[in-house]
């Protein structure tokens, strides 16, 4: 085709082409738009001026082409009145970009509805402060990396956090709170459908997830991460070699990821040390103390229920985690509805004994 064409010929391709032609060829590599260039395009397409935090986050959280920005900006402006304020246009553009990301993720990961807020978290002050720092890193990273020149050479803009601790201590709930505070979608990576016994398939599945998440701002949650981010072992056969290749790929992809990745585990000791070096935050969730358990008991019941007959300090003496408390409350409410009786202390204690038996503990 190049030999037959006369005049200037322009070819577009996602990757360099090994062309062997007698014609002179000038290869040009066009880089993806930087966050600053994306912000400039958003401002131009939306017709907004000045600098705002939401405009900065639009260019930072969503890695979009300039054509895609133009399309989403048209969608946002079409849904608003012509005289809509700049803040309204930016809010609508954020929602348009967020919805587009959902179409990209599709069935690659499970989207979790985030309804929990900071008031729903009952954690020690140090753990809560660490979570607030994670949100601050995501919200202000463009200002620190670009304006202040603190970018990490050869590394992406990823922020990775490890939440470790027993089940029911608030690890997944904390990820929900972070996603809601940042106004981002939370996606749980289903490791059962991602990890494959066939060589190379796990990397392909993870690549699809990371590529889709890179384009749209979201929070990736790797629940029970030790099953896929485990320690690399000694190579004894080909299976060990490919298992280590899989872990190495995850190390590289996690580092180049543009968003926030949250890993949860019940066994921190089983995590590969190379992952630990790449984590900006590690929070160890512990079992709640009596004072914290009382707050959990009080907040677990719906406000529409009459809980005046309950002895919350006595219930707080039960050494159970927050997830178990929510399970006890749910069972107690169902028992009260099924029996047609009000919520009483003996009824809640009966539900608590059921939870003890489920946990394999002695009921006193």
Please estimate the helix content. 40-55%
As a whole number of angstroms, the C-alpha radius of gyration is: 25 Å
What is the fourth-level CATH superfamily of the largest domain?
A: P-loop containing nucleotide triphosphate hydrolases
Summarize the biggest pleated sheet: 6 strands, mixed
CATH class bucket of the largest domain: Alpha Beta
- What is the CATH topology descriptor of the largest domain? Rossmann fold
Shape, principal axes of CA atoms: elongated
- Count every helix, treating DSSP H or I runs of 4 or more residues as helices: 14
Strand content: 5-15%
Please tally the β strands and state the result. Answer: 6
Structural class: alpha/beta
What is the strand arrangement across the widest sheet?
1-3-4-5-2-6
Average pLDDT metric: 82
Distance between the termini: 84 Å
CATH architecture identity of the largest domain? 3-Layer(aba) Sandwich
Helix/strand order, N-terminal first: HHHHEHEHEHHEHEHEHHHH
Please identify the oligomeric state: single chain
- Unreliable stretches (pLDDT < 50, length at least 5) are none
Q: How many structural units, i.e. domains?
A: 3
């Amino acid at each position: 085709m190049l030999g037959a064409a006369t005049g200037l010929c322009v070819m577009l391709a996602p990757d360099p082409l090994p062309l062997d032609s007698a014609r002179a060829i000038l290869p040009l590599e066009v880089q993806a738009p930087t966050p600053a260039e994306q912000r400039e395009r958003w401002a131009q397409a939306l017709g907004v001026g000045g600098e705002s935090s939401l405009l900065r986050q639009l260019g930072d959280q969503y890695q979009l082409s300039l054509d895609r920005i133009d399309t989403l900006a048209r969608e946002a402006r079409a849904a608003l009145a012509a005289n809509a304020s700049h803040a309204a246009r930016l809010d609508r553009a954020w929602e348009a970009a967020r919805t587009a990301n959902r179409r990209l993720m599709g069935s690659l990961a499970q989207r979790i509805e985030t309804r929990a807020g900071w008031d729903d978290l009952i954690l020690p002050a140090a753990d809560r402060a660490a979570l607030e720092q994670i949100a601050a890193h995501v919200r202000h990273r463009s200002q620190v990396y670009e304006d202040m020149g603190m970018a990490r050479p050869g590394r992406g803009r990823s922020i990775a956090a490890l939440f470790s601790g027993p089940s029911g201590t608030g690890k997944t709930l904390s990820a929900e709170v972070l996603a809601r505070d940042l106004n981002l979608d939370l996606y749980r990576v289903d490791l059962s459908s991602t990890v494959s016994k066939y060589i190379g398939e796990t990397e392909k599945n993870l690549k699809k997830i990371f590529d889709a998440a890179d384009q749209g701002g979201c929070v990736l949650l790797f629940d029970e991460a030790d099953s896929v981010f485990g320690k690399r072992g000694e190579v004894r056969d080909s299976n060990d070699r490919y298992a280590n290749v899989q872990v190495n790929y995850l190390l590289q992809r996690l580092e180049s990821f543009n968003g926030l990745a949250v890993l949860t585990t019940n066994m921190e000791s089983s995590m590969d040390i190379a992952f630990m070096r790449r984590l900006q935050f590690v929070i160890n969730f512990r079992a709640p103390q009596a004072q914290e358990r009382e707050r959990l008991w009080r907040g677990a019941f719906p406000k529409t229920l009459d809980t005046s007959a309950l002895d919350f300090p006595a219930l707080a003496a039960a050494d159970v985690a927050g997830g178990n408390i929510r399970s006890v409350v749910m069972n107690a409410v169902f028992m009260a509805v099924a029996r047609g009786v009000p919520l009483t202390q003996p009824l809640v204690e009966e539900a608590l004994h059921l939870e003890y038996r489920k946990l394999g503990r002695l009921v006193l």
